């Protein structure tokens, strides 16, 4: 059986077991909460996979046993149609008492008291968070949401695959080092795979300019020449097989936002590393571990002329409380336990990635859940100089602008100068619309 087939089969088996366990957990939940008669009922909505659903419901069960006066109604969902579901519930005033939020929803819906000011809820302790990080959830000076964890773009490589090609990972310090090492790769192999060329170019330009792509008001910080420089650098690296070419990526991965974890070229070491959000790279590590390869976090190279690594950063997700909440003490008690509680975090584990609460990190570290590759990525991201992204950075139209233009260049349909001009002009226009929609001005 081939490596990628073996991992895919294992993934299906694990999913079946988790699904069965989640079903059993649901049954236990009804029994556990049936004794809480007369308790104040609150609700909590989230999305995710079966693993996250089970961990969250188990946490709720434990919370209810310790707080007989509070009953929590879980409202889980999958990953589909998140925007449509949220906006419909928000407009109809049917949000759960505690709602999971995407970053871009915070400025859009947090204006004018759109969510409750969490800083006024006495039973919620936010002192376990870095003050600057809490700003991700602030609108008009109010703490309308609390970010759960921080996501930073990091780089990681298949150390085993590199060594098979006589490449010493420790010797790779600059992008020129990676380009030189790529000459040792066999045909069809690449040093780094990124789901979008926008990630490496964003980090590169943040290093070169010292600025984010957009300022706090949503205005463009970069010039047309900046985009041309960034795209030219990326094309050179792709031609040198440092980055996977768009043609190869489309042929072997496709256009959907899927994990590389069960991709044949990833498992065979032909895609020798990646750039991704540190909270979501565990599956890439586990899949390679299963086939006998070792994935390691590496220092992110700094662009020539750059002074700091300036990695792109964002919150993984956030939690908000509906604006007309009546049961503030109970909601605060639940959310506080979810974010800071010892037993709660032992149960939740890393089902939502690594939390930002210092108490939660301590619990997970002592409990042996935050170790190895995951902790390496977390520690590297914590220590790195970061630049926070605007709430609309991952807007679908902006992503399409980038993707369309670089693919046109690689396929010989246009030149870099024309593509850079198009990216600059279209991005500036779209950003102006988004800044207005997000009420950043």
From TrEMBL:
It comes from the Bacteria. Pfam families: SBP_bac_1. Residues 1-21 form the signal peptide. SUPFAM superfamilies: Periplasmic binding protein-like II (SSF53850). InterPro entries: Bact_solute-bd_prot1, SBP. Keywords: Signal. This is Carbohydrate ABC transporter substrate-binding protein. It comes from Pseudolactococcus laudensis.
């Amino acid at each position: 059986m081939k490596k990628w087939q073996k991992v895919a089969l294992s993934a299906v088996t694990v999913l079946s077991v988790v699904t069965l366990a989640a079903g059993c957990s649901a049954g236990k939940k009804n029994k556990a909460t049936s004794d809480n008669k007369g308790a104040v009922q609150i609700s909590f909505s989230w999305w995710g996979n079966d693993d996250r659903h089970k961990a969250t419901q188990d946490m709720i069960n434990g919370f209810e046993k310790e707080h007989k006066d509070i009953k929590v109604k879980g409202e889980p969902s999958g990953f589909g149609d998140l925007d449509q579901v949220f906006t419909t519930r928000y407009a109809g005033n049917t949000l759960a008492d505690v709602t999971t939020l995407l970053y871009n929803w915070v400025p859009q819906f947090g204006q004018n008291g759109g969510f409750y000011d969490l800083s006024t809820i006495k039973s919620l302790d936010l002192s376990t968070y870095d003050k600057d990080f809490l700003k991700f959830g602030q609108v008009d000076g109010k703490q309308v949401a609390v970010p759960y964890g921080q996501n930073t773009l990091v780089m990681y490589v298949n150390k085993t695959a590199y060594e098979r090609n006589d490449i010493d990972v420790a010797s790779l310090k600059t992008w020129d080092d990676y380009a030189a090492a790529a000459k040792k790769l066999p045909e069809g192999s690449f040093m780094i795979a990124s789901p979008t060329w926008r990630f490496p170019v964003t980090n590169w330009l943040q290093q070169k300019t010292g600025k984010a792509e957009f300022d706090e008001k949503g205005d463009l910080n970069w010039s047309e020449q900046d985009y041309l420089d960034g795209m030219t650098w990326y094309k050179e690296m792709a031609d040198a097989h440092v980055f996977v070419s768009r043609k190869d990526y489309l042929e072997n991965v496709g256009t959907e936002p899927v994990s590389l974890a069960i991709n044949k070229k990833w498992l065979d070491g032909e895609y020798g590393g990646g750039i991704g959000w540190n909270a979501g790279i565990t599956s890439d590590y586990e899949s390679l571990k299963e086939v006998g390869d070792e994935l390691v976090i590496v220092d992110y190279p700094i662009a020539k002329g750059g002074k700091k690594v300036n990695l792109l950063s964002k919150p993984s997700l956030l939690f908000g409380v509906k604006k007309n909440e009546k049961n503030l003490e109970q909601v605060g008690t639940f959310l506080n336990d979810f974010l800071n509680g010892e037993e709660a975090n032992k149960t939740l584990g890393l089902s939502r990635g690594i939390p930002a609460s210092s108490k939660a990190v301590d619990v997970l570290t002592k409990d042996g859940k935050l170790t190895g590759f995951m902790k390496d990525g977390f520690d590297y991201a914590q220590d790195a100089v970061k630049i926070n992204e605007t709430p609309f950075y991952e807007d679908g139209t902006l992503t399409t602008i980038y993707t369309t233009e670089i693919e046109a260049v690689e396929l010989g349909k246009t030149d870099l100068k024309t593509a850079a001009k198009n990216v600059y002009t279209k991005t500036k226009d779209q950003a102006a619309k988004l800044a207005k929609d997000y009420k950043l001005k």
